[in-house]
Design brief:
Number of strands: 15
CATH topology of the largest domain: Rossmann fold
Oligomer: single chain
Number of domains: 2
Radius of gyration: 21 Å
Distance between the termini: 52 Å
CATH architecture of the largest domain: 3-Layer(aba) Sandwich
Strand order of the largest sheet: 2-1-3-4-5
Shape: elongated
CATH class of the largest domain: Alpha Beta
Structural class: alpha/beta
Strand content: 25-35%
Order of helices and strands: EHEHEHEHEHHHEEEEEHEEEEE
Length: 269
C-alpha cells in the first residue's frame, strides 16, 4: 500500500508583518501544496522555530532584529541535529547590492522585496527541483557550512583596536590582571565571558563580539559561536564515534567542542 508523500514544510522569517503576509500569500498561490508552519518576525524566533519544526525550506529576511538572516543561518548550521536534512535556504532582501552573489552561492536562491510573483515562481521551481533530487539534498548541510564559513568572516574594521595584552577582572573588591597569553580559552556565559587561564577562571562583563577584534587572530581561534581558544594550549583535535570534533587542552580534563562551521580549521595538513 502506497502512503501519500509527506508535505513539504516551510518557515518564513520576516520582520515586517505586511511583507511576511505578502510572501505567505504569494507562496500559497504559486505552491499550494507547501505547508507553511509559521511566519516569525525576528532571527531569534527563526532559529527557535526552525530547530523545533525542522522545515524543508527556510525563507530568511536578511535584516531582522535579534539576529540577521545570515546569523540565523549560521547558528542553525552549528546546531542542526545530525541525521536530519538541512533546510534549503532562500534569503529575502531589499538591497540589491547586499552581496547577492555570495548569497546565491550559499543559498538555493534569493528574492527581492517587494516579492514579485514571476521572480518567486523561478525560486519555487528551483526549490522543487532540489527537493526532488534527494541526493543533492543530502549534502545541503555540508554545502551551507562551507559557504557560510567563506562569506561570514568577522567584519573588517577601519582602524583595528590595539591587541589586548591584559584582562582586567573584578574579583570581590580586587582587580585581577590576567595576561592574555595565559588564557586557555574564552567561553560565553549569558551576558558574561568566562576567562579560563592557567591561574583559574573568572567572569568578565564583555561580549565575545567585543573581545574578538582585540585578540591576535593567529593565536586565538573561534571554534564555536561561544568559544575562542588559545592555540598555544591546544594539545590535540579528536573526533568521537559520531564524528564530532573536539579539542583537548594542555592541563585540562574537559574537551572543547568544535562546531561544524569551524571544523575546517583543523583539517589534516
Amino acid at each position: 500500500m502506497n502512503h501519500p508523500a509527506a508535505p513539504i514544510r516551510a518557515l518564513i522569517a520576516e520582520d515586517e508583518p505586511v511583507l511576511g503576509y505578502a510572501l505567505l500569500q504569494a507562496l500559497q498561490r504559486l505552491w499550494p501544496e507547501l505547508a507553511i508552519g509559521a511566519v516569525v518576525e525576528n532571527g531569534i524566533a527563526a532559529v527557535r522555530e526552525a530547530l523545533a519544526q525542522r522545515p524543508d525550506v527556510l525563507f530568511l529576511d536578511i535584516k531582522m532584529p535579534g539576529k540577521t538572516g545570515l546569523e540565523a543561518a549560521r547558528e542553525l548550521a552549528e546546531d542542526w541535529p545530525d541525521g536530519t536534512p538541512f533546510p534549503l535556504i532562500v534569503f529575502v532582501t531589499a538591497y540589491d547590492d547586499y552581496a547577492l552573489q555570495a548569497f546565491e552561492q550559499a543559498a538555493v536562491d534569493y528574492v527581492m522585496k517587494p516579492v514579485n510573483d514571476a521572480r518567486l515562481a523561478q525560486t519555487v521551481a528551483r526549490l522543487q527541483a532540489r527537493l526532488a533530487a534527494h541526493a543533492a539534498r543530502d549534502g545541503e548541510l555540508e554545502r551551507i557550512v562551507r559557504q557560510l564559513s567563506a562569506i561570514l568572516p568577522a567584519p573588517a574594521q577601519q582602524s583595528p583596536p590595539p591587541r589586548l595584552t591584559l584582562i582586567r577582572a573584578g574579583v570581590g573588591n580586587q582587580i585581577r590582571l590576567i595576561p592574555v597569553a595565559e588564557v586557555l580559552y574564552f567561553e560565553a556565559a549569558d551576558k558574561y565571558l568566562n576567562v579560563v587561564s592557567t591561574g583559574g577562571e573568572v567572569l568578565i562583563r564583555t561580549s565575545l563580539k567585543e573581545l574578538l577584534p582585540q585578540l591576535d587572530p593567529e593565536q586565538f581561534w573561534q571554534i564555536h559561536r561561544g568559544t575562542v581558544v588559545n592555540l598555544r594550549f591546544v594539545q590535540a583535535a579528536q573526533r568521537d564515534e559520531a564524528g564530532k570534533l573536539s579539542l583537548r587542552l594542555t592541563g585540562r580534563s574537559e574537551l572543547l567542542p568544535v562546531s561544524r562551521l569551524f571544523a575546517h580549521l583543523f583539517r589534516q595538513m
